[in-house]
Design a protein that fits this description.
By secondary structure, this protein is of the alpha/beta class. It contains 15 helices and 11 strands. The protein binds 5'-deoxyadenosine.
């Protein structure tokens, strides 16, 4: 315990210290880790939790990631595409509900029609969401994968300012094990660098509990986040999805996977005290209390799903996706109750940029 307390109080951690912290499994030790991370979060950012309405606007995808339920090769998936007006309706609902930001997420496409469509969505959302409570309109985060620097520039100029692109694993070998050969780790890194150079607030993240992934790999992931100087982190457990090549490859129990994911949030918080960390929906697929546990371990962002219920079930990256039938008004009420139950406060009507981004 002395060694643990020293590590929790320390300001500089070696890779093996990080791996040690990530591997904590006895309940007392894991609780000490989470408490230290929560303390750091509250000291630096206070009890406020930022909200972003998540709009999953299309499940059409040109990629074939081996873990993903909407991969191109999955012919059993009914593909959908929300039209501009429906995306706008979802976004304006968020503005009314007090979620000061939205995340537009979809499968990956690079064709001109897609690029033009998303440019129009961004322009309209920024313009039409302006109100007395949101004088600058909604903050917009995009999460639509690898694109050319010109495309990233175009969407930035249209008014989006945060981008989420997970590296999935900072270990290039592990990355190649879970992607087809045409998807390359080095290109993903170039995309992240290009986003940064353009001025986007940058988010990345990894999958936790991948086959063959060691604690040392996860320690490398956290060092990668720091090296990249990213502003936001969204990471979650890998959930073995039926009808994907990685089906049946999971080795950790749900409890072990949840522990590992929470440790990952907590240690990331200790090493990167001023970034935004999302308590992701995938955590809730492991436990009904998943998102609350994420907040208790150092997360400070929640992304409630506001996608039209009509298509929500078709965007299943992983099985047991929570909230498939939940009405967005009910989901807002349960979010408020959840935050109140753990002594946190929603930061309504704010973009909620990370302290790290505001430092620049
Ligand atoms: N389990 C957990 N997360 C997944 N993602 C895709 N498939 C799965 C899965 N089976 C995550 C990826 C991607 C993000 C949009 O969803 O990390 O970056």
């Amino acid at each position: 315990m002395d060694h643990l307390n020293e590590l929790l109080a320390s300001r500089s951690h070696s890779r093996s210290d990080i791996a040690f912290l990530l591997g904590l499994s006895c309940p007392d030790a894991a609780l000490s880790l989470e408490s230290a991370a929560l303390k750091s979060t509250l000291a630096r950012m206070g009890p406020g939790v930022s909200t972003r309405g998540l709009i999953e606007f299309s499940n059409l995808c040109t990629c074939n990631c081996l873990y993903c339920g909407i991969r191109r090769a999955n012919q059993g998936v009914q593909r959908y595409w929300l039209d501009e007006d429906e995306v706008l309706e979802n976004a304006l609902w968020c503005a009314e509900a007090g979620y000061g930001s939205v995340v537009l997420q979809a499968g990956e496409r690079r064709d001109p029609a897609f690029i033009d469509y998303l440019t129009r969505c961004v322009t309209r959302i920024r313009k039409e969401s302006v109100s007395a409570t949101l004088p600058q309109g909604l903050g917009i985060t995009l999460s639509v994968g690898e694109q050319s620097p010109e495309t990233y520039q175009r969407w930035f100029d249209a008014g989006a300012h945060r981008y989420l692109l997970r590296i999935e694993s900072a270990n290039p070998r592990l990355f190649s094990a879970i992607h087809p050969p045409e998807q390359q780790w080095s290109r993903r890194v170039r995309c992240l660098e290009s986003l940064k150079a353009i001025g986007w607030q940058l988010g990345t993240g990894v999958l936790i509990g991948l086959p063959g992934q060691t604690l040392d790999d996860l320690a490398g992931d956290i060092l990668f986040f720091r090296e990249l100087d990213c502003d936001m982190i969204g990471m979650g457990p890998w959930l073995a999805t039926p009808d994907t090549p990685m089906q049946g490859q999971d080795r950790l129990s749900r409890a072990e996977l949840l522990r590992r994911a929470l440790n990952m949030i907590a240690v990331t918080r200790l090493l990167l005290p001023d970034v935004n960390i999302a308590s992701t929906t995938a955590l809730e697929a492991l436990s009904p209390r998943g998102r609350e546990l994420g907040l208790r371990a150092g997360a400070n962002v929640i992304m409630p799903n506001v996608t039209s219920p009509r298509v929500r079930a078709l965007y299943q990256l992983y099985p047991d996706k929570p909230g498939l039938n939940q009405d967005r008004g009910e989901s807002r009420a349960s979010l408020e109750a959840l935050l109140a139950s753990c002594g946190r406060e929603p930061r309504w009507n704010q973009w909620g940029d990370s302290l790290h981004a505001r430092r620049h």
